[in-house]
Amino acid sequence: MKPLPPAYGWIDDLRPLPRILEEARKLYGTFEVAGPGNNSAIMGWAKETGLTKTFTADSIPWCGLFMAVVAKRAGWPMVEGPLWARNWAKFGTSADRAQLGDILVFRRAQGSGHVGLYVGEDYGAFHVLGGNQSDGVTITRIARDRCIAIRRPVYRKTPASAKPVQLAANGVLSTNEA
Fold first, then answer.
1. Of 15, 86, 95, 133, which one's alpha carbon is 20 to 30 angstroms from that of 109?
2. How far apart are CA 45 and CA 73, in angstroms?
3. Which residues of 132-160 are buried (b: 16+ CB within 10 A; e: fewer)?
């Protein structure tokens, strides 16, 4: 497992993590291949989730694929049409306030979207662990006002760590997660 940036190292010390976040953490540091090649790990996620007919190259936006594979590995169902980020607004149940391990759906230009997992927040942004953020599985800050849905897995027993997390507002604010 690749190390997290120092500002997020606390995640590796916190147990138990929500299952979906635990699965996502294992994939941190995976990056697509620049140019015509494909990362075999990312292409393997398409095979694992049964999405090889619609996901044929890692140059295709893959934040939804990332969510599909971590949801599947955590034992949660995928949403219909999981490659379309905004479809994740139908996952689990709606929540008014984000907490560790929640799925956040964001709007982007021209009706497109982005999806990732909440790891914290500051006064103006959510800190999001997601795929296809700067072409990899990274943690990035995304403006709160772009969030259109907070979705929570339906837990039998909510992990003790599933709560809001206040973080410092350090790092660049993302404007385009691709």
1. 95
2. 10
3. bbebbbbbbbbeeebbebbbbbeeeeebe
108 three-class SS = coil
Model pTM? 0.97
pLDDT by residue (tens digit) across 90-115? 999 999 999 999 999 999 988 899 99
DSSP-derived secondary structure letter, 114? E
**Span 128-135, average pLDDT:** 97
Nearest to 116 by CA among 69, 66, 154, 161: 66
What domains are there in the chain, each with its CATH number?
6-174 (3.90.1720.10)
Task: Say how far apart CA 127 and CA 16 lie, in whole Å.
Answer: 19
Q: Which two tokens stand for residue 169?
A: 């507002």
| DSSP H/E element including 67 | helix 63-73
- How many CA atoms, within 13 angstroms, populate the side-chain half-sphere of residue 34? 1
- pLDDT tens digits, one per residue of 5-45: 999 999 999 999 999 999 999 999 999 998 889 999 999 99
